Amino acid sequence: MRPFDFLEPSSLPEALSMLAEHGDACCIMAGGTALLLAMRQRMLAPETVVSLGKLDELRDIAFDPDAGLRIGALARHADVAGSSIVQAHCPALAGMAGGLANPQVRNQGTIGGNLCYADPATDPATFLLAAGAEVTIAGRGGERRLPLRAFLVDYFTTALESGEILTAIHLPPPGSRQMLYRRYLRTPAEHRPVVNIALSAVTDGGALSDVRLIVGAATPVPQALAQTEDFLAGKSVNAAIAAEAAALAGAEVEPLSDGRADAAFRRQIVRTATRRILLDAAGLDWKDNAA
Amino acid sequence: MASTVIGQPVPQVSALEKVQGRAVYAGDLAFPGMLHARVLRSPYAHARIRSVDVSAARALPGVKAVVTGADVPERRWGVAHKQQHVLAKGVVRFIGEEVAAVVATSESVANDAIDLINVDYEPLDALLNAGSAFDDDAPQVHAEGNLAHEIRIARGDVDAGFASADLIHEDVYSTQSQYPGYMEPMATVATVDGTGKLTVWTATQSVFLARQRLAEALDRPVSTIRVHQPAVGGGFGGKIVEERSSVIAAFLATVVDRPVRLGLSRLEDFQSGCFSVPTRIRLKMGMQNDGRIVAKEVDILAECGAYAGLAPEVMLVTAMRSDNMQRIENVRSRARLVYTHTMPRGAFRGFGGTQMLFALNSHLATMADKLGIDPVDLHRRNAIRTGDTSVHGWSIGSCGLPECLDQVTGAIGWSAKRERPETGGVLRRGIGMAAAMHVSGNRTMGNWDGSTVTLKVNEDGRAVILTAESDMGQGANTMLSQICAEELGIPLSHVTVLAPDTDTAPYALGSIASRVTVNAGHAMLKAAKQARDQILDAAAAKLGCDAADLSIVEGVVQSTVNDNLFAPLPEICRYHIFRHGGEGILVTATHDPRTVMMDKDHYGNIAPAYSFAAQAVEVEVDTETGQVQVVETWLSDDCGRAINPLAVHGQSNGAAVQAIGWALHEHLQFEDGRLMNGNLADYTMPTADALPRVNSSIVESNDPNGPLGAKGASETAILPGAPAIANAVYDAIGVRITDLPITPEKILAGLAALGEKNHASV
Amino acid sequence: MRRKTLSITVNGEPVEADVPANRLLSEFIREDLALTGTKRGCETGVCGACSVLVDGKALKSCLCLAAQADGASITTIEGLGSRDDLHPLQESFMACGGLQCGYCTPGFLIAAADLLARNPRPSDDEIRQGLSGNLCRCTGYQGIVDAIREASEKMNGH
């Protein structure tokens, strides 16, 4: 790993002024799990690393009945998983965070760092998109808030501008919304998801409305399956509907191919994942319902 | 009276230091003035080295030496094929081959210096596919051609056997290379003392074979080199004599005349091998309607990569070892080993057995199906038995295979599960089984398979064992300590096994071919009995009685006829020294089993004993994702006698999981000869959460040639896992996978093909 | 700021050190403090052999800068228990065959200590999930799972 200057601001304004001073020659470090790997493999060689480790105010997790959940960007995955607030107001988020990567990484990696790194082979972004999350970004000119959809630009690329820091993630109050999340590994011995899927919908007397169906890990950035969402609107899920939705999802997903799996395989998993998450949401058993 | 030591599940003698993190591995060692080495590797699968410019690297502050192929001895090293230099000279033959090395004051300076070395390569066409090795225009890996080794074995009348068969089945199987995946990447510290003597601490399975190879590679007398074995973090065959980094580290120490440490990164450990030998096996077998095997013919194409190493010996095992598991008279094998421009492949736990036992057990299951016979019955019907001499001349002193089959099929509920109705649905369950055999010892090196143990009993009655048989975690030192403690009548905690050291320990071959328990165990038994006799003779003289009436019980020499006659062991040990003509108790004993080397036709009883194993598994196949999950596994190992059941279960469980990894998860991915997944995130070895409870049981067949009846228990257990899983997958979904690993993609493709076939037949 | 002054506690002892900013926590522990029980197995955060407790939580020290640990209390395997006063996990790893070559053992013990701190009575499945960040090639994990269950029972007074 190349030598670098290590800066540890003790407040957000100090952090922002350090970023302004060092410009593109610096990297922001949150938990550091992904950044250090990239630096050790010399994919990144910053002159300066600005560690946010002392900004404890960015670790807070809070809930407000009107505003919903606010998760500080530096909350570690284990903090999110173990938070009684998260467990009470969005248990599916706690479940997602508690199954991510492995215990040691959950103890160190942060939810904000995860989103900023924008590695597709991970879980939070898929879930948070389905939850309708927004993010707050601090810059020298003040804060801006934008939908997570707009924040996630591409493979390892976000809307974060030079000199900005992601400070918080907001989830709207769940209301009567049902949320499910599933992670698919190619084999039980792999730990990064090959496909993940999140479903968020309002179930009104059985019929679905305001459906959000997001797949990730299969695609450069998590993809909203818009046609499938439209198809599902107003429908009550049964085996035939789930199968039809699965076919639609398989058709509209634009999967990537890499060393871990090719596009055709990922497409098949997306079909499967779609069918199963819909049947799970409807309380039906997918094991007996092969498409 | 039941022994309190033998047959007891005692913790490893190294466990206390290991749980404290205080076992010292090669990479943990540090010496005053120690320097650090790094290696530059070839980015080309095949290239001529036109020139190497090291001037910038040499000029970097902190760099003490930069060496290339031009600086290393001319003499080549190798097992039978002498092919390698300390660093590549003139030509590189695989991506990752060592081209230059740097010694510097820190690893980071050495790394920087590596980046400053400028090599001018002339890329050449590379042979990357074993199947193309004999093409007219195939690039030649070595001047003598691409065929590294060929074996032909024929016994009985194979053609007549096939003519008498009611059923003949032929198929082609392929198996991929497996990375040993020991948790300790190769590491070595080497130093030269004021007399010029070279001392090397390295992660090895055999200090004497390591010393022999260093002598050859560095072209210096054996006795000018001393090799120590520190704690070793697993070997699985990869740390016998094929890894190359210890040779480079030792050479570098001679160049800088100071201590040098070379610890490979995980990526380098992947790049430099040593992986198991991949094979393509055509297997043809004839059976009568009752399931009796009447003829077997195999044709094997195996790949050793750039250098032969131990791969010829590995391929011999693939070609003929499993023939000995059955009563079979007519067999014919042809096996060819080819070079490619890829990393060297060679020894791996199971030593060629895993490959053929995958093919054989898959084949037997298929034929059993065709004949309407339960595969367990098919195995029983053909199984070799105690007292038999096999087709290749192996004398089977004990065979617990039938009992192994009983145990695993009973435990998994084989009959009930075979009879359960098909359930349909998305998740399908299936069961499969497989059986295996392995040698315990192998007379193959210079007509000696002996083992020597030196035992000192100190003046306080405690024992010190000197041996160069090695413990890489499998429990050899615990086994030796248990036998010693039992014979001397002392607590296990009073026995110390010294780490292997070529200058103090008697000559030994080390931990290969499952030979340590069966041979070193015997030598230990003999040494301990000799020491015991000396103690009792001294005690008889001191107590004024007959030695035959004395025994040692819990550290006290006691008369068996007169309760008043006794003396604490330390008192006798001191008496043994402190008298006219006295001396400390120091005995050395050797055991060389009465085995024979194979003749030129590969016939002969090579091992004192043969181990057997069987495994039954249940899998669940997700027909939509292609994922195979092992949901239950039972493995039974006939280890003769379990001197330490805790260690035997540990071996069985570890082997079963390594086999699950090979069958389902582990696959080296190459692109133009470059390893694309040389890291532990992308080369996915099973973690605890990927596995079910792993069950193992023990069959004690009490081999007449084994020490206290024991046989080897580390390698047989890895053999049946992959075919048991393949057979269970077939049982679950009707898809026969003949090429490992069994990936989700292959499962989905197989199901799709099956669907089309069924659709077409409707 | 190419260097960083650390003020930390390691296995109960205060440590002051001046390290390069790019020093990994694993390098600092192994080379500067000579606590070689923390192992180097993959250097990419997969194998878990370098796990240590930082403020009671297991981390992979190859994915962490020494500088990040400033102010923290670190427990390495050398601090988990002593020869005469072993941690219950150390005892049960010995008794249950939770180790063979021993190279992964420190990392597993640290991961297990973290697991039992979060979940004192884990099921076998929870134990296996809790070990998903650690690789062992010798034991097949069964002895390790058995050992953690036994330690959990012992620590909970069974």
TrEMBL record, chain A:
Any one Gene Ontology molecular-function term assigned to this protein's record:
oxidoreductase activity
**Which InterPro entries does this entry report, sorted A to Z?**
CO_DH_flav_C, CO_DH_flav_C_dom_sf, Diverse_Substr_Oxidored, FAD-bd_PCMH, FAD-bd_PCMH-like_sf, FAD-bd_PCMH_sub1, FAD-bd_PCMH_sub2, Mopterin_DH_FAD-bd
Supply the alphabetized keyword list. Answer: FAD, Flavoprotein, Oxidoreductase
- One of its Pfam families is FAD_binding_5
FAD-binding PCMH-type domain location: 1-176
**PROSITE patterns reported for this sequence:** FAD_PCMH (PS51387)
Question: Which PANTHER family does UniProt cross-reference here?
Answer: XANTHINE DEHYDROGENASE SUBUNIT C-RELATED
Protein name per Swiss-Prot or TrEMBL: 4-hydroxybenzoyl-CoA reductase
Q: From what organism does this protein derive?
A: Zhengella mangrovi
TrEMBL record, chain C:
**A Pfam family it matches:** Fer2_2
- The entry's protein name is Ferredoxin
Q: Does the keyword Iron apply?
A: yes
Cite the entry's keywords alphabetically.
Answer: 2Fe-2S, Iron, Iron-sulfur, Metal-binding, Oxidoreductase
Residue ranges occupied by any 2Fe-2S ferredoxin-type domain in the UniProt entry: 4-80
Database matches in PANTHER family: OXIDOREDUCTASE WITH IRON-SULFUR SUBUNIT (PTHR44379:SF5)
Q: Which GO terms describe its molecular function?
A: 2 iron, 2 sulfur cluster binding; metal ion binding; oxidoreductase activity
User: Which domain of life does this protein belong to?
Assistant: Bacteria
